[in-house]
């Protein structure tokens, strides 16, 4: 046959290439740079958690978990939600364990979005949202967040809502900006979509990474919004084990039932010994989540205190483990992709350009993202290098 295989495939995702996280992590490795690009800790999760995995593997917990997730883990998730947000969710009909938040988001989109539907995303937005929507036959309507604080532009959001709007994607704490959506903004959103047949996916994977004494305003704590929402989280972020790709999604029973129809044919279930280990650890150390803000705020401040002496300018991240920095005073001639490459190759610190999270980036955007989920010595060394730029 003379036709090349690639010529026969009409891609359903023609605009998708290699993600910026893979690209920058590879460039960091090639350049021998400190990798503050892709978001993952350079330290391990708790020892007791890691040991529990070995124990459960040896105890023979190696076959399929239930499709909805191990009951012991769903019970812990429900208990944590009650403690953190005051909501009693039913672990059987409202909590689903998934192999990563990414799969939860994908399945929630498949459950809701039909061909021709519109999904509102707030730019800059996480890279998995749009391909998930496109594979479901939907179309993303991009509404930029307002600069400089990445807050919701209510006028533009209201203008984007229409008869085809099926879903709005929220992300708080927000990757890449670190911005938070407040309770008052959730109320405003509820008022905006009241009376419309619009659903929400609330991507709250950084729910426990919120600083300066502020409380995360979860959709789980919002009666009216939760009634039409999928709330997604990730054990990877909360327990410093991103490679475990284990997350969960909480939604009212009818929404959960629809999501599970997709989930059971995407992966069927999450990884059994990891779920056992997480259930044990959450039961033994419920305080882990309460200690996270101080743990990461110390890292943020260590990095930022030194960066403040450099020519980068910034406002400290309110949440997530990402710090944005403006480099206008250093290389205004470079766009952010070129700047990220230059910093990686020439100064040995890899970061993420944020224009890639936009459909149409603002022309004068001069911001890059640094991940501060790193050991103190890594942060000190990176900040020293950035001070010299
Ligand atoms: N949403 C956001 C905003 C993220 O930053 C990430 C990062 N990994 C995910 C979802 C995916 O989480 P997971 O690794 O659990 O699939
Ligand atoms: N969420 C991570 C980040 O924002 C990346 C995850 C991935 O590489 N897919 O850096």
Automatic annotation (TrEMBL):
<keyword id="KW-0808">Transferase</keyword>
<dbReference type="InterPro" id="IPR015422">
    <property type="entry name" value="PyrdxlP-dep_Trfase_small"/>
</dbReference>
<dbReference type="InterPro" id="IPR051326">
    <property type="entry name" value="Kynurenine-oxoglutarate_AT"/>
</dbReference>
<dbReference type="GO" id="GO:0030170">
    <property type="term" value="F:pyridoxal phosphate binding"/>
</dbReference>
<dbReference type="InterPro" id="IPR004839">
    <property type="entry name" value="Aminotransferase_I/II_large"/>
</dbReference>
<keyword id="KW-0032">Aminotransferase</keyword>
<protein>
    <submittedName>
        <fullName>Methionine aminotransferase</fullName>
        <ecNumber>2.6.1.-</ecNumber>
    </submittedName>
</protein>
<comment type="similarity">
    <text>Belongs to the class-I pyridoxal-phosphate-dependent aminotransferase family.</text>
</comment>
<dbReference type="GO" id="GO:0016212">
    <property type="term" value="F:kynurenine-oxoglutarate transaminase activity"/>
</dbReference>
<dbReference type="GO" id="GO:0005737">
    <property type="term" value="C:cytoplasm"/>
</dbReference>
<dbReference type="InterPro" id="IPR015424">
    <property type="entry name" value="PyrdxlP-dep_Trfase"/>
</dbReference>
<keyword id="KW-0663">Pyridoxal phosphate</keyword>
<feature type="domain" description="Aminotransferase class I/classII large">
    <location>
        <begin position="34"/>
        <end position="386"/>
    </location>
</feature>
<dbReference type="InterPro" id="IPR015421">
    <property type="entry name" value="PyrdxlP-dep_Trfase_major"/>
</dbReference>
<dbReference type="Pfam" id="PF00155">
    <property type="entry name" value="Aminotran_1_2"/>
</dbReference>
